[in-house]
Amino acid sequence: MTVVIGVHRSNPSLYHLSRLGYAEEELAALGETVTWHPYTDGVRTGAHLADGTIDFGGTGSTPPVTAQAAGHDIVYTAVSAPRPDHGALLVPEDSPVRTVADLKGGTVHLAVGSWQTHLVAKALDDAGLSYATDITPVRGDSGSEAKLRAGEITAWVAQGAELAAARRTGGLRTLIRTGDVISDRSVFFTRRDLAEQRPELVEALTRALRRADDWAAAHPREAAEIAAADQGGTVEDWETALKALPWTIEEVTEEFIAEQQTAADIFHRTGFVDRAVTVADALPRKA
């Protein structure tokens, strides 16, 4: 069997794994091979699993919930440790917005459908506001930071090297620290047929992810050089961002499932997904 692994820039563990050869080594021991399917939008991971484009993928917390809402039969395989400083919601230093409640009526740039939707929706819900009606969420792009600094938008969710660069430049203030609202874990998942019929493959891929994370933790400068050369930005900003990540792969826990269920309930209540989701349905069935 050739196992197709999806890889996109927003999942740092898979991004570096795709360059290190550990997945190939682990699956070769089982007599299997690996190919990589690069794509740009992690939100499409569930659809890519469902249509057979990929066999295994990883994202932030929101895409697996939206995948379930779309009817895709996914199974969680592993998660990262929490990433409390992976991202933040920023406002201008002189903005009158001092609390989440002050976002009401504003425009927020974010990666819609990513973990950033989970962050903003949960923060608003905690403040008694709605993601659907109390802000205007807009998909962020390369011009989001400039628009925020010019006062054209209310807030912007930044992550990784972009966040490090924005903080280095100054003039912006953190309104929401990710770790104060959600755990923001990387999440790895696959199709049910692969999870339940070939669990040894899932175990091998999890070992490979752990090896890749161990390498990145031990070689932050080299990892930063790889990312900067491929994705842009400075090596220094990438090193700052990568050092803020936990580089630890953990088992799926009841605590994680509960957090995902809270997100799923908020998404359904606000109309971000059009059907209720039972997150525990994305666990392997007991034999």
Automatic annotation (TrEMBL):
Protein name: Sulfonate transport system substrate-binding protein
Source organism per UniProt: Streptomyces nymphaeiformis
InterPro entries named among the record's database cross-references: Solute-binding_3/MltF_N, SsuA/THI5
Matches recorded under SMART domains: PBPb
Homology family: Belongs to the bacterial solute-binding protein SsuA/TauA family.
Gene3D superfamilies for the chain: Periplasmic binding protein-like II
Domain of life of the native organism: Bacteria
Domain Solute-binding protein family 3/N-terminal: 2-219
One family name in Pfam for this protein: NMT1
